[in-house]
Design goal:
The protein contains two helices and three strands. The protein is an alpha+beta fold and 128 residues long. It folds into two domains: 56 residues, Beta-Lactamase (2-Layer Sandwich), CATH 3.30.450.20; 64 residues.
Length: 128
């Protein structure tokens, strides 16, 4: 049974394949009689006679809900890991930039201080 979350595009592809006597595999959300949703993998293949006329169909439908749930769980874990990695890289970059800025500020302070000392010495010696 189909319902709200059943992908209409996939249903259209299935119908088109049947109209064209083509083999198709699709994954859809389906519903049990009591309305519980589940993922299914559907494989449909035409059977032809010796005149190459479609005389029947073979269809296999498998419940792949467990696999889909695992896939979703793995994707969530990967997104979480990527977010943690971005956060870590951001902190590292922040720390590195902060260290560079502090180092530059200290160097500028030393240069300014040396400049004042040189100016003071030169003034005392009457050079400036």
């Amino acid at each position: 049974m189909q319902g709200l979350k059943t992908d209409r595009k996939e249903l259209s592809k299935l119908n088109q394949a049947i109209k064209n006597n083509q083999t198709i595999t699709s994954e859809l959300i389906n519903y049990t009689n009591n309305g519980k949703e589940f993922w299914s993998s559907i494989n449909i293949s035409p059977l032809f006679n010796s005149s190459e006329e479609c005389i029947n169909w073979i269809g296999i439908k498998r419940d792949i809900t467990g696999t889909k749930k695992k896939d979703i769980y793995v994707k969530k874990l990967m997104i979480h890991a990527q977010e943690n990695e971005k956060s870590f890289i951001g902190r590292e970059l922040h720390d590195n930039i902060a260290q560079c800025l502090v180092g530059s500020m200290l160097n500028l302070g030393i240069i300014k201080e040396k400049g004042r000392m040189i100016k003071c010495c030169c003034t005392r010696l009457g050079i400036l």
